[in-house]
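During the reporting period the student researcher (J.K.) took over the structure-prediction task from the postdoctoral fellow and processed the backlog of single-chain submissions. One of the processed entries is reproduced below for the supervisory committee.
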Amino acid sequence: MSANLKNKTISGLFWKSINTFALQGTGFVVGIILARLLSPQEFGLIGMVIIFTAISETFIDSGFKSALIRKKDSTQADYSTVFYYNLFMALIFYLILFISAEAISRFFDEPELKWIVRVIGLQSIIRALAIIQIVKVIKRLDFRLFAKIGILSSVFSGAVAIAMAYNGFGVWSLVIRDISGALLGSVFFWYWNRWMPSLTFSIQSFKELFGFGSKLLASALLSSVFENIYKVIIGKYFSAQQLGFYTRAELFRNLPSKKITRIMSGVTYPVLAQMQDDKTMLKNGYKKMIKSLMFLSLILLTGMAAIAEPMVLTLIGEQWRQSIVYLQLLCFPGALYPLHALNLNMLKVQGRSDLFLWLEIIKKLIAIPTIIIGIIWGIKVMILGMWVNTLIAYYLNSYYSGRHINYPMREQVADILPSLLLALFMGAILFITGWLMPFDNLPKLILQILIGGIISIGLSELLKLEAYFYIKQIILGKLTSIYHARRK
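J.K. obtained the following structure tokens:
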């Protein structure tokens, strides 16, 4: 990796991290306030339409977007073609959603869903308008701009949602938060990036990008449907309240799991795409990603499972107690999520979108029994079924991606084993101390977090864990460069 590319990668990781943690921190605080102002039932209503918003997000974030990022010499014709195609598909999707809203409302037996679906579906059109602006920013690794836009959009939309919830708008405060956040983000990207489409649609560009992007789009659609099908099952066969408990637990779980993965994947995908022809360099960079990301994921998710009770009760209150056990059970598949995402990311870097698609199809077929189990035996058993699916999916993903860069599953497991043992030891200590502490939830939570941090950092320093020192080097290096830049 050249010095310039390395510096851009480190800078990108730093600003992507700032963006994600500031964004999620704002969203987390807003979510806590809203959880105290609204009921699980109202969050459950939003959970019922997540599958539809996820599909719209898939049209925006997958397929052609990844194809453009991977292509080294993208032209104005490529960008304009993808822009018009995505906007057209967003309009078509929204029209279908608008017409289907009443049927969706009847399916869940929730009359209010009709207009919730029709309003929240506007996100697909709003986000489609900014797709190329986002691609251009990603390709030049300008994640500082991402941070600025993300924070501004999150703060403003969160303030609007809180004001609406406080004044009795109920579930509509959640709807408007999503819409206003998407709208502001799109406006800011257009204002600060200033790319303009040409009045052209290139059939040649479309065919070239479609060959790669269409398979990723199909894979992502399949993944979005099956990732969110559990919410459909809970909403249909149980209740909006139970779905509210589940989605709140999932939100807590996703904060350290999926968000950290998106930081790493979002920054390193364009970087790895530039070194796709050098297998040795690709493998070395990939090993660092696996080690560092799984260190964070295992520590944070194991710790979260151990402190779930005082955390939930302190932050969002007694009315959310039922979400505690869901959170604890979801932490295991959540901890392994980075392994899935990174192995699939490698297939995209290598241009194997065809294999990516087939793996998604196989994994979703395997997940069908878990869905049936959930309908028959309940939500907790369904989550346990996800554990099995997670292990099978990781085996499949790592087997095929590892063959392309000579990084098989056994070598990956050996690389993450030190982090896993550290996380299990730390989690056991936290669980035992939490059980023994005769304190209220808030002091117990604070003490457990301090103990977990001391154990994780202390043992990592003592044992000289490579993953820990790689993360430490990135953070200290970037902070030092910012300090020196300001002194000048």
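The committee noted the following: The chain has 20 helices and no strands.
J.K. will present the remaining backlog at the next meeting.
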